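Example record

The entry below shows one chain as it appears in the dataset: sequence first, then structure tokens.
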Amino acid sequence: MFILKQRKHIKGYIDLIRPFTLLAPIFVSSFIMIASFFQNKISDDLFNLFWTTILPASFSIAILNAASNALNQATDVKVDKISKPYRPIVRGDISLKEAKIFSIILIYNCFIAIFYYKFYIYNNCFSNRNLYSYLLSSTKIKR
């Protein structure tokens, strides 16, 4: 019984970040960075750039998108009860507090990765206005 609850809880976290929606930021940001490296004639060691900059940066953007997905679901519980009852918070797999804490942890991990790898996406993450609107007044916006 305990293992079944744990499995349901883990599946709830996976459903919370909506993993299929994270593929687009990974691919699009990777292609944009590759194109910008070619445009700026920094293509001498593309293999090294891919593993040290492009891929980690793309995954950081995907983590930030996952945090935004989780925070969106945490702020739209009333609407989701009607229009999307299959979401994990509405189903009761994850509490509202757990979803908010999880999104903050994801945001924190994204920024740690950015500062660790010294990415050029620093400005992109800080200019994500939608994320800030949820972070700064997540409950006030939806009421």
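Notes for this example: Residues 10-142 form one domain. The mean pLDDT is 79.
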